[in-house]
Amino acid sequence: MLASAMEVTTARYIYEIDATKYLGGELRLLHRKKVYILGGRRALNAALPRIEPSLIDEGIQFEVGIFEGYCTYENAQAHAMLLHASGCDSIVGVGGGKCLDTAKIISKLAGVPLGMIPTQLGTCVCCTNMAIVYESSGAYLGACHPDKPISFVLADYSLLVESPIRCTASGIVDSMAKYPELNFTQRNDFTCFDEDESTAKAGHIMASGTWQLYLANGRQAYADHAAGIISPSFTSIVNTNLVTTGVISGLARGSKQLAIAHSLYNNSTTVFPEVWRNYMHGEIVSVGVVIQQYYNDAPQEEIDDFISIAKDLNAPVCFKDLGLEGSSEELDAIQQAISKDFKQFGSREINKLRDALERSIVV
User: Which helix (H) or strand (E) holds 39?
Assistant: First the structure.
């Protein structure tokens, strides 16, 4: 019998300019001889020239797998078979969220160590021991939990500063969601009445701190990234997006930090799938943050602070920004979908949710 463990983040997190040069050494520490490198075409084009010299220096062979589509069990199974057939004894995911999550499931299926090289800042996927799984249509299916923690993450500033600026904006607003969502699940309470609440409370405090860090550094980091400048503001956002947010998720054991904002994203895959396909994870969560803040009865200043930075980063903040009209039919569908995720909701909570949805039609 396996215990339900708290998996906070990766075993090793290496962050600096040209961090990918350490890939061969990290695999050597794990006594690996041949690695399966999974990535999308654009991510591999950017990363492989940086990766290959390190592997050659350490005498490690590699096989490349092209990631396409969504993180599905079928996709992961096909790559796991290719990994075994090629004689690989490890896997490294190179890319964004769906690719890295797929690498986690492949690692689980194949029983091999996993390393991560994120190529954009859209989510904290590279430092969370949970994969979000979709159906082949793109509909949200649920979460998969790997059996073993991620062995290492290489956060290469020189690679990440070349990523699309939209991904960084998406990552910032997605990470900012942790604070209002933990306010929702922890009821804005920083005290601990039970011993097992202590880690969730620690995550809550960290989320409050990162909220303030983003307000202070997010705009400058965004501007520096757009200019190709690896500045302290940019690197602070890199590590907050990738690892600190992942630690918060681990401390809250995942389920205690995902609330209305992420429920909006998960249900958007089926309630308005065409909209979902046109926007990044964090962009839809950004609208969810506003809904979450309205539901939480957050101070207006706090709501205004988020809306201001999100707009400055060109992230959507309301249904109109996503191309939705906010009709009664749309709101009914969204309300019903989100309510199913919170079975404890009674009529009062459902009415509060409806009010928050209506206030988020246009901001």
Answer: strand 34-39
Within the chain, all domains assigned CATH 3.40.50.1970 are found at 13-160
C-alpha 363/C-alpha 358 separation (Å) is 10
Global pTM reads 0.93
pLDDT per position as a tens digit, 199-230? 878 888 999 999 999 999 999 999 999 999 99
Distance CA 77, CA 172 (A): 32
Residue 257's pLDDT is 47
Residue 186: CB atoms within 10 Å: 20
Query: How confident is the model over 81-124, as pLDDT tens digits?
Result: 999 999 999 999 999 999 999 999 999 999 999 999 999 998 88
Which segments of the chain belong to CATH 1.20.1090.10?
A: 166-359
Query: Which residues on adjacent β-strands are paired with residue 156?
Result: 16
In the predicted structure, residue 255 carries a pLDDT above the cut 80: no
| Sheet hosting strand 34-39, strand order edge to edge | 13-16, 152-156, 114-118, 90-95, 34-39, 61-66
Whole-angstrom distance, CA of residue 96 vs CA of residue 67: 10
State the average pLDDT over residues 133-161.
Answer: 94
CATH classification (class only), 13-160: alpha beta
d(CA 312, CA 232): 20
How is domain 166-359 classified at the CATH fold level? Dehydroquinate synthase-like, alpha domain (1.20.1090)
The pairing of strands 131-134 and 140-144 is: antiparallel
Q: What is the torsional sign of CA 136, 142, 147, 153?
A: positive
Grade residue 193 by pLDDT with cuts at 50, 70 and 90.
low
In 3D, which of 298, 283, 99, 350 has the Cα closest to residue 181? 298
CA distance 200 to 191: 10
